[in-house]
Amino acid sequence: MIPFLSFASRNKDIKNEILTVFESFFDSESYVLGRCTSEFEQNYAKFSEAAYCVGVGNGLDALQLALVSLGIGSGDEVIIPSNTYIATVLAVSYVGATPIFVEPNINTFNINPNLIENAITPKTKAILPVHLYGQACEMDKIMIIAQKYKLWVIEDNAQAHLATFQGKKTGSFGDINATSFYPSKNLGAFGEGGAITTNNLNLYNKCKMLRNYGSKERYYNELIGFNKRIDECQAAFLNVSLGYLNKWTEERKRIAAWYDYYLSGIKGITLPIVEKGASHVYHLYVIRTPKREQLQRYLSSKNISTLIHYPIPPHLQLAYKHLGYKKGDFLIAEELADTCLSLPIFLGMEEWQVKHVAHEISTFLKNAN
Length: 369
Ligand SMILES: *Cc1c(COP(=O)(O)O)cnc(C)c1O
Prior knowledge:
By secondary structure, this protein is of the alpha/beta class. The chain has 12 helices and 11 strands. The mean pLDDT is 98. Bound molecules: pyridoxal-5'-phosphate. The site of pyridoxal-5'-phosphate has 14 residues, from α3 and α4.
């Protein structure tokens, strides 16, 4: 039995430290926006090579506050990839702006910078690239377009902690950037968590207020804010995990390299391709095949769990019916949704397990052809 995901190895690494910091959190009697939060924010900013970090409730909160802090709202358009996770789209909707979908590069799954200019209108306020599955977007091209048209850039870095483009960390390019610490993410909490990173002091100060009722000083409200504070206890746990993130990222890359090796040469599948200049931290290892449904069923019959990220592109979701899109409007996103398959990848996964998954994929495809 090979699960899609297991926390066992990660948890073993940190269990004793987590229990220790839990006790000190418990004894501190400071349960909201305390010392653990400010320590984590400093540490995470340093890791991301960004000047500032604001801890928030989750990744969707981070995206929403980023958009609010930039003043993006009703009547504005935000460019996002047509194959992203729904949270990216929801954040744009929450502030009353309109999501404008741009197709990804079919090889990298990331937004195709060459298609962005065509989507820009006088209403466009921002480009929101998503470093999908853990691979950094082509940030050089995106930043040039943003400068040319005076657009904000907001990175959705939920899946790509520690990824780089041309040696620079994701989450440090945009004017303001969002990430998630949902348990299964590369840096995962033991519950909910998220963060904003930015190099802009004004936006930093604004987000700190926005997450905490719009106030700097208690009971003085300068902005119509929210309660989107990071949980103090999760910040304490994240501080521990952050110390392991380099090691864990290397391990993910090693597992992905085993997949690359054992899957290479198998006819009927496409392996993930890493763009020149980009690094990939393999939040997910996603292959493509036209026989996706049959392959997934076969692997499941061999006790190998796989998932589909994501089966329905945002423009075809019921929630976005009002945008008036139909099947055929974003052919690449639809093709990816129909053919992608995420293979098991988790800390502690061993080479024989990867080899076994690859062997079963190969066996299935030989018999299917
Ligand atoms: C997980 C994720 C989010 C949302 O994060 P939550 O913490 O679940 O709110 C946003 N964008 C992407 C690309 C994600 O993968």
